[in-house]
Amino acid sequence: RPRRRHHDQVLVQQPAPALTTVELLHEDLVVVSPPGAEGHVPGRPMRIADLEGRPLVMFRHGYDLRELTVAACRTEGFEPSFTVEGGEMDAVLGFVRAGLGVAVVPSMVATRAGRDLRVTALAPPGLRRTIGLAHRSDVAPPRAARELMRVLLRTLPGGAARDREA
């Protein structure tokens, strides 16, 4: 959260009441697994319910991907089973590569994770997260911060700016 005179803008995943937020990017989440993982047909989307009973590699508490995944599993009527908890993105991908389980990650991360992971889309409605740029509501952002926002909105692939034009 920005504090007086410390931050002009911050990237956020959830809107906060004291902040003005501009959505930058809507990102689909996918399941990554080791190439030889059993229990799913390659090329076919996976349902959240298909994660029941599968070992999950999970992010630390407070990480938005953890909250989204756990909430989706609970909506389907089950508690996810974690084999490893507490990692950041690189650690989670490493644990999946080592065969410790599967993980739900942003598609942008999965496509750059390498060929040693199988990437499976989630069946509709799937899971998405939104990344935004925020600044304090009671202070106008400086010119440089406004320019950063303009450039990001114009250039981010699949960004919120494109969604608004559609």
From TrEMBL:
<dbReference type="Pfam" id="PF03466">
    <property type="entry name" value="LysR_substrate"/>
</dbReference>
<keyword id="KW-0805">Transcription regulation</keyword>
<keyword id="KW-0238">DNA-binding</keyword>
<keyword id="KW-0804">Transcription</keyword>
<comment type="similarity">
    <text>Belongs to the LysR transcriptional regulatory family.</text>
</comment>
<dbReference type="GO" id="GO:0003700">
    <property type="term" value="F:DNA-binding transcription factor activity"/>
</dbReference>
<dbReference type="GO" id="GO:0003677">
    <property type="term" value="F:DNA binding"/>
</dbReference>
<protein>
    <submittedName>
        <fullName>LysR family transcriptional regulator</fullName>
    </submittedName>
</protein>
<dbReference type="GO" id="GO:0032993">
    <property type="term" value="C:protein-DNA complex"/>
</dbReference>
<dbReference type="InterPro" id="IPR005119">
    <property type="entry name" value="LysR_subst-bd"/>
</dbReference>
<feature type="domain" description="LysR substrate-binding">
    <location>
        <begin position="15"/>
        <end position="155"/>
    </location>
</feature>
